[in-house]
Automatic annotation (TrEMBL):
<dbReference type="GO" id="GO:0009505">
    <property type="term" value="C:plant-type cell wall"/>
</dbReference>
<dbReference type="InterPro" id="IPR048913">
    <property type="entry name" value="BetaGal_gal-bd"/>
</dbReference>
<dbReference type="InterPro" id="IPR008979">
    <property type="entry name" value="Galactose-bd-like_sf"/>
</dbReference>
<feature type="region of interest" description="Disordered">
    <location>
        <begin position="377"/>
        <end position="401"/>
    </location>
</feature>
<dbReference type="InterPro" id="IPR043159">
    <property type="entry name" value="Lectin_gal-bd_sf"/>
</dbReference>
<dbReference type="Pfam" id="PF21467">
    <property type="entry name" value="BetaGal_gal-bd"/>
</dbReference>
<keyword id="KW-0326">Glycosidase</keyword>
<dbReference type="InterPro" id="IPR031330">
    <property type="entry name" value="Gly_Hdrlase_35_cat"/>
</dbReference>
<dbReference type="Pfam" id="PF01301">
    <property type="entry name" value="Glyco_hydro_35"/>
</dbReference>
<dbReference type="InterPro" id="IPR041392">
    <property type="entry name" value="GHD"/>
</dbReference>
<dbReference type="InterPro" id="IPR000922">
    <property type="entry name" value="Lectin_gal-bd_dom"/>
</dbReference>
<protein>
    <recommendedName>
        <fullName>Beta-galactosidase</fullName>
        <ecNumber>3.2.1.23</ecNumber>
    </recommendedName>
</protein>
<dbReference type="InterPro" id="IPR017853">
    <property type="entry name" value="GH"/>
</dbReference>
<dbReference type="Pfam" id="PF17834">
    <property type="entry name" value="GHD"/>
</dbReference>
<feature type="compositionally biased region" description="Acidic residues">
    <location>
        <begin position="378"/>
        <end position="398"/>
    </location>
</feature>
<feature type="signal peptide">
    <location>
        <begin position="1"/>
        <end position="22"/>
    </location>
</feature>
<dbReference type="InterPro" id="IPR001944">
    <property type="entry name" value="Glycoside_Hdrlase_35"/>
</dbReference>
Length: 634
């Protein structure tokens, strides 16, 4: 019987290993303790089977190699062995007498066989921390508490047995369960969701852990694109640590693309570029956060200051939060200074007297992607929203080649590898299948995707599935806006985009799926009929890069692929308006803006600039100043 019936969710923690020697992993209510070092942890979830070939080992299944790469990169890791109905194979469903995720002897036996097999593989590879490996935590089950009520007493027995089985593995690192309020005391119960600042562990000795930080939400066929501005999850994470959080894991961080028949990850993930300043600010106060006493003072209904103070060393770290979704506030901390706190934001104040971060004042780079080799150029912003026929983008003289299609009925061998007998013409679907099947296979070759004109089906490139297509599913034309007010608790019906368009037209083909020399084979399995003449391929490259930063921070810009910054199209330190591709000067700006940015960036593959009055010579005007830059990579 196959034994890969449960989904694995390894996570690469954004905390560095000190060495490859054996490590003792412990915890208490205020820290994860690794070899006596008290830590807070930020992590990113990776579905390694849905990553591309850089992580695709032996048919996407070699998770041992994946963890070894994590160790080589100097990272900690968390092993999540999740028992979920979505991951159970058909043979398990069809096992006589089985009741899945229940107090059922057949199910519990199969669960233990599988878990033990995985743990034994990890132990043999010496990957748990006490063996010198990177794995510092392990999970068993996933969100069973969300459905357990329907199982009654049997559900409670099942979760107890699950915990006993996990602990009996003797892996030497703590185990945890997600969304399990009544988790046995041998387990750390943890939180999943958009926010976890109000979560409390069921054991006062357990750390407060956020194992799935949902940084966005799913796109649905026929639905508009959900969007969550980066400032919003930044607020949620800062607020979580403000309220005593110890471990935060972004879900997803990599590998969420909808390859094969697996569901994709959340849309518009916020990655390291948006949140690295938050992580850096948290590391500054790590000792105070994990060893200090905690006091909180309210400054009105929605504003509070929490201080973590180590009375022995004198170290302090403060969080200043404004949870009001509309009103900005000014807060006077007496000898520790005065602070402007925007609505729905959290400030991190080093030593409680110098703000080093605020979640509403993000500094980040945006890359404008350009599609080449098509009948008409199109551009898209960093969120993947297409701007068709943009007047600022000239049509290319180099046109994409016409695709020559062949077709075949459903019943055939080796179709996914481009083999079989084909007729070199495209006929009406009913004629082609002779009413034997409702399905039709199309195949073409190309040296280099957009599925406009097709109905519904599945697509492969060189034998690799890149997912399902359904461009006939059109989002409602109403309810979208060019602006997004992220303030206030996130709801997936807010800040929608892509109204009136197909839910998905463009499909990313990883370079590792393509042949570097010779033709590439595209195969479509069409279910309801379509027109292949509208399908096109384009190469996506970075055109312009933009940066935006607030005063008293650092702006970093970089080009990809060894290219350098060739030109600065726009630069303004003051009150710039607009967005990437349409920046313009505001009511005031430093006259040295362009010259200072050109001096810092031009001719370099990457660089940074201090966003301050000292750099640009613009003196205090009583307002917070900003820097906007648009550059071109050469």
């Amino acid at each position: 019987m196959p034994n890969n019936w449960i989904e694995f969710l390894p996570l690469a923690a954004l905390a560095f290993l000190s060495s490859c020697s054996a490590a003792k992993v412990e915890y208490d209510a205020t820290a994860i303790v690794i070899d006596g070092q008290r830590k807070i942890i930020n992590a990113g979830a990776i579905h390694y089977p849905r990553s591309t070939e850089e992580y695709d080992f032996s048919g996407n299944l070699n998770f041992i190699k994946f963890f070894q790469l994590i160790q080589e990169a100097g990272l900690y890791a968390i092993l999540r062995i999740t028992l979920d109905l979505i991951g159970f194979p058909m043979w398990l469903h069809n096992t006589p007498g089985i009741q899945l995720r229940n107090d059922n002897e057949i199910y519990k036996r199969e669960m233990e066989i599988f878990t033990t097999n995985i743990v034994d593989m990890v132990i043999r590879a010496k990957l748990f921390a006490p063996q010198g490996g990177p794995i510092i935590l392990a999970q068993i089950e996933n969100e069973y508490g969300n459905i357990m009520e329907g199982y009654g007493e049997a559900g409670k027995n099942c979760i107890q047995r699950c915990a006993q089985m996990a602990v009996a593995q003797n892996v030497g690192v703590p185990w945890f369960m997600c969304q399990q309020a009544d988790a046995p005391q041998s387990m750390i119960n943890t939180c999943n969701g958009f926010y976890c600042d109000q979560f409390t562990a069921n054991n006062p000795k357990s750390p407060k852990m956020w194992t799935e930080n949902w940084t966005g939400w799913f796109k649905l066929w026929g639905g508009k694109d959900p969007h969550r501005a980066a400032e919003e999850p930044a607020f949620a994470v800062a607020r979580f640590f403000h309220q005593g959080g110890i471990l935060n894991n972004y879900y997803m961080y990599h590998g969420g693309t909808n390859f094969g028949r697996t569901a994709g990850g959340n849309l518009n993930q916020h990655k390291y570029g948006h949140l690295k300043q938050l992580h850096a600010a948290l590391r500054v106060g790590e000792k105070a956060l994990t060893t200090g006493t905690v006091t909180t003072k309210n400054y009105g209904k929605d504003v509070d200051l929490t201080m973590y103070a180590n009375n022995t060393t004198g170290e302090r770290s403060c969080f200043l939060s404004n949870v009001n979704g509309q009103n900005d506030v000014d807060v006077d901390l007496d000898q520790d200074g005065k602070y402007f706190v925007p609505a729905w934001s959290v400030g991190i104040i080093q030593n409680c007297n110098k703000e080093i971060y605020n979640s509403a004042k993000l500094s980040s780079q945006t890359s404008v992607m350009i599609r080449n080799l098509n009948y008409k150029d199109e551009t898209e912003d960093a969120n993947g929203d297409a701007n068709e026929g943009d007047a600022d983008v000239p049509e290319t003289e180099e046109q994409a080649p016409k695709l020559n299609w062949t077709w075949a009925p459903e019943a055939m061998r080796d179709t996914l590898h481009g083999k079989g007998r084909f007729r070199a013409t495209v006929l009406d679907q009913k004629e082609a299948t002779l009413d034997i099947s409702d399905y039709l296979w199309y195949m073409t070759s190309s040296n280099e995707s957009k599925f406009r004109g097709m109905g519904k089906g599945h697509v492969w490139v060189n034998g690799y599935s890149i997912g399902r297509y359904w461009p006939s599913q059109i989002a409602d034309a109403n309810g979208c806006s060019d602006t997004c007010d992220y303030r206030g608790s996130y709801k997936d019906n807010r800040c929608r985009t892509n109204c009136g368009n197909p839910s998905q037209r463009w499909y990313h083909i990883p370079r590792s799926f393509l042949n570097s020399n010779g033709a590439n084979t595209l195969i479509l399995f069409e279910e309801i009929g379509g027109n292949t003449t509208d399908i096109s391929f384009q190469i996506v490259t970075v055109g312009a890069i933009c940066g935006f930063a607030y005063e008293c921070s650092t702006l970093e810009l970089s080009c990809q692929g060894g290219r350098t910054i060739a030109d600065i199209q726009f630069a303004s330190f003051g009150d710039p308006q607009g967005s990437c591709g349409s920046y313009k000067a505001g009511s005031f700006q430093a006259t040295t803006s362009l010259a200072a940015v050109e001096k810092a960036f031009v001719g370099k593959p990457s660089c940074s600039i201090d966003v301050s009055e000292a750099t640009f010579g613009l003196r205090n005007l009583g307002v917070t100043k900003k820097l906007a830059v648009e550059a071109v990579c050469g």
